[in-house]
Design a protein that fits this description.
Structural class: alpha+beta
Radius of gyration: 15 Å
Order of helices and strands: HEEHHEEEH
Distance between the termini: 21 Å
Number of strands: 5
C-alpha cells in the first residue's frame, strides 16, 4: 500500500492539464515530486530549460527537475507573505497563484510550513479551476498526515 502523502501528490498531479505536483518543505525543498499526465510540449520544455545547465543534477528527468525548480521559490514567497500578513494582523495566507504566459502555479500552504504546488499548462481550459479544487480538497488529507 502506498504512503498517503504519495497518493495525495499523485492525485494532485493527475488534475487535467497538470504538468505535475510537488510537496515542498518549509525551505521549498521537494519532498515528493510527481510528473503529471499532461504532455510537456516541445516549446514549453525548451522555454523552461533555456537557463538550466545541460547536465541536470543526479538522475532527475528534465520535467521532474523543472517541477522541483518551479516549486521552490513560490513556497518561500508564500512563507514571506504569510509572516507579513500575520504581523499586520491579517491572519494566515493560505493559497498563492502565480500565472505566467503558459504556466500557472497553485501553491497551497499546509501545516508545519509544508506546501503543495500544482503546476499547470494554462492552455487547458478548466485546469486552473480543477487545480484550485484539488488543492482545497487535498489540503485536509495532507494536513492530517503532516501534523
Amino acid at each position: 500500500m502506498m504512503d498517503p502523502l504519495t497518493v495525495a501528490v499523485e492525485e494532485a498531479a493527475s488534475v487535467p492539464g497538470a504538468l505535475g505536483a510537488v510537496l515542498c518543505d518549509f525551505e521549498g525543498e521537494a519532498v515528493l515530486t510527481r510528473v503529471g499526465a499532461s504532455t510537456w510540449s516541445r516549446q514549453l520544455l525548451e522555454e523552461a530549460t533555456r537557463h538550466v545547465p545541460e547536465q541536470l543534477p543526479g538522475a532527475l528527468s528534465g520535467p521532474e527537475f523543472l517541477l522541483r525548480l518551479a516549486a521552490a521559490e513560490p513556497c518561500a514567497l508564500l512563507a514571506l507573505f504569510g509572516r507579513g500578513a500575520r504581523q499586520a494582523g491579517a491572519g494566515e495566507l493560505g493559497t498563492l497563484e502565480l500565472a505566467f504566459r503558459r504556466v500557472l502555479l497553485v501553491v497551497e500552504r499546509l501545516p508545519e510550513d509544508y506546501y503543495l504546488v500544482i503546476i499547470l499548462d494554462r492552455t487547458t481550459a478548466r485546469g486552473p479551476v480543477w487545480a484550485r479544487t484539488a488543492a482545497a480538497r487535498l489540503r485536509p488529507r495532507l494536513a492530517a498526515e503532516i501534523g
